Amino acid sequence: MLDNKTVLGIDISQSTINMALLRDGADGVTLVKAAHCPVPDGAIKDGKIEDSVLLSKAIKTLKDTNKIRARRAAVSLFSQPVLMQIIDMPKNLPANIGQFIHNEVKRCVALSGKEIALDFCSIGSLAQRGTSRIFVLATEAENVAGIARVCNSAQLNIEVIEPPILAYARAFYPQKIAGRFDCNVLMGIIQDNILTLGVFRKQNLDFVRSKEIDREATQPEELCYWLADQINTVIKFYDVEVSDSYPQWEVTVVADCPQLPEGVEETLKAKVDCPELSFRTPQNAFQDTFINQNAGSDHPSVVAVGLGMKLLDTDDINLGVNLLPLESAEVKSFKKHVLITANIIAALLLPMIFVSGALSMMTNKVNKNIAHIKRTEFIDDMHSLLREEAISDKQIISLSEGIEQMNKILESRHSLPWYEFLNELRTATPSNVRITELFSKANSKIYLKGLASSYEAVHLFVKMLNKSEYIDSASLVETERESSHRGLVSYEINFSLVMKKGS
Amino acid sequence: MLLDNLAKSNRLSRNTVSAVMIVLSAIAMYNWIVAPRAAYLRAVQKHEIVAGNIAQKSEVISKNVVAKRKELQELQEQFTKLRDTLFTPEQAKEFLSDLQTISEEAGCSVYSLNILTAAPSRERQQSQDTSYILPRSATLTVIGVYEKIIKLMERLQVRTQRVWVDSIKMEIFDYDSAEPKCDITITLYTVEDEEAAV
What we know:
Mean pLDDT of chain A: 84
Number of strands of chain A: 22
Shape of chain B: rod-shaped
Low-confidence stretches of chain B: 122-131, 194-198
Strand order of the largest sheet of chain B: 1-2-4-3
Strand order of the largest sheet of chain A: 10-6-1-2-3-16
CATH class of the largest domain in chain A: Alpha Beta
Oligomer: heterodimer
Structural class of chain B: alpha+beta
Helix content of chain B: 55-70%
Largest sheet of chain B: 4 strands, antiparallel
CATH architecture of the largest domain in chain B: 2-Layer Sandwich
Number of strands of chain B: 4
Number of helices of chain B: 7
């Protein structure tokens, strides 16, 4: 898992690409992995990137082959020209220091007329020397952009670009610089035919100079003498020009230069009046660092280690320069910010999709339920049902009225089975009684008139009538013996009929 | 240009822009993804409630309709039964015109037959809108022996349609031999408008 405590330093020279993977743990900084490979032919020429694709491919291959993964990386400034200068600032500091330094750098012949990438930082404090000193690092902007492009193509997140001398100083600082308050420390770095000399006083960078190796000094011995001369020149400069200079010197030379002869350390000691002189090659320079080393990382590049340490904030040396354009860092930061924002938005999208899916499922369930209701119930027949109900109501009312009317008529009429009554009447009539007239009035009233042989026969007749189920209270209205009818008795009987209603 | 400005802006500005973007995106996503489905779900749920209510009402109405069908059937049966006791105008016309034949078949000779013109009944006058039953009356005078008159009465009254004998008058009759003159007033009812009853 990648974290901010695992960093990668990349040292690129004209001949070699070195990588050092560092991790800052509880036991301090540890060199986790180191790897190197030669720079492909034609990738870098005369301190310029000739083929960025080739170079980035080589870097990526080296990284992938050795399974080196880190979020953050720092790369060395390997292109030329590079201007490193310490400027004594005037007591009245200009308002725009950046512009002031930019104008100063533009005076450099190598960088004049070109777009410049520079960075600077103050060295020591104003109180230390009574004046302010600025360390300035500058190169062509195109070179920096080229390095950034190469590293981006190699899928490296570059945060720092700085020259090898600073990486060396950082790596050697605990053992070579820290605590040296009574002597001057001179550090000489030879890489890519450039000699860089730096002097540290009271743990601060005090002097820096870069110089191309003398092309006339082609022989190893001559080269060795030239190097000693350069060191002596600096020491003499301090003896003459710097009033509070210390007489003791500690000199460390790291040379990646195969032209130097064997026994160069003895030669330099003989030529340079300094007993504390040590000579290191890239193969053995690592022993002067305080970094723990894992197994399997042979001859790690001190520059790569120093670059990695820059990212781990173990920067005891007060040189916070970085040639990576501020805009590049801003763009990276902005990209990171955009990425985080996009991730948050994507993270928001996911639950919304889930919620949407859940809503869809619920909707489908409800729709199925509705379909079930529609299928099983009579929703579609609602109108026909209502219509039928209305028609039924109308018919019921009509029929009820018809029935009521018929019942009313039937109940208003009394019914008598006249044929049965007449039969009953014949049965009830005694043989000595004769009916001369029968008529009905008001439907239920019957009047009988007739003749009988005797009163007894009339009374018997009345009695017989009263026994009939169709007759209600037959009564004798009048009886009279008729002399004109041979002494027969005339009678008049009336009675009411027992009427049944309706049926 | 805008991106350049954003890239150069400070952390607070970026955070603000990011927060705004996130909020706007969240609102947009909610409005585009969640809100339509939520609204659709609400609508469907309301539809479900309405469908359920309609189903319940439909069931109630269906039960009502079934009950009313039954009631209607019962009423129709009742009505048919009652209507069968009345005459249709054609049946009445036929019956009245057949009175002479009926009398003769019963063994009575018709002395006179007077069919009264139909007049609006009391019932009809009371309920103008639904009345369709009209009374028809006839006065029949026949001559026949008592037995035949009884038979005529039976022929008049023992039938599906009801015939009411309103009055009867007989003079000087002998049960066995005499042929009294008998005045009979009958009334029957006709259903004038059958369609209204259906």
